[in-house]
Specification:
- By secondary structure, the chain is mainly alpha-helical.
- 52% of the residues lie in helices and 4% in strands.
- The chain has 7 helices and 2 strands, in the order E-E-H-H-H-H-H-H-H.
- Strands 1-2 form a two-stranded antiparallel ribbon.
- Helix 1 packs antiparallel against helix 4.
Amino acid sequence: MPIARNTIGALVVGGALTATLAALVYPSMLGVQTTSSDPFRIIANTQWGPLTEGDRDFVVKVRSAGLWEYPLGELALEKGSTAEMKEAGKHLIVGHAGLDELCRKIAPMLNITLPNQATPQQQQFVATSAAQSGRQFDSTSANIMRVTHGQIFPTIAKIRASTTNTLVRQLADLANDTVLDHITVLENTGVVNFDQVNFQQTTPPKLPKDQLTPPAAQPGAPIVVLTPRPDLGINTASPTPTPSAG
């Protein structure tokens, strides 16, 4: 496999998963521990502008997202039952490799420590999808990812509008393009249940912080790199909006 991964524990599910989102558990959003409840609290002054709690949280969220969505993209490329699902997998791989490259570039400049594993909940998302096959795999994985992408989209806009750090702003710009592209290709699979996606986005479950927090990287451990895949020939820039009828 192109990236290093920790073994995901066996998934325990009571009965067969249904095709609806109600059978799955989704995040309130990818979480990290903070030292303050104020996301605008400045934690460092850098040559690229002040760095806030919210800025740091965002960089870690983007990194953590790639650590589960990249391997899920690989699964979609391998297990997807339609050309559209395999195409979505390609976009996930390429998009998160690009975001990860930028995260790894700016994190040391801002003195931000990046995780090497996704959150426990995100790892469970991968395990849940990996346990499926055929059309059920398409539905399960596409709906999980459509919820999480829909949840992070407003966060990106908020960071982009409020940050005064130029490096974080650059990451938000790239994340905006990438997430919009991913939302579009996931919807193109034809298996997204919009009613339940919207419900899950606006009514997330309350989970313990340890389920929403990426484990700290071990001191001295080499950083996990999401392998670039230019061979896939995918562009994840913001897609052209669909013209309205009439």
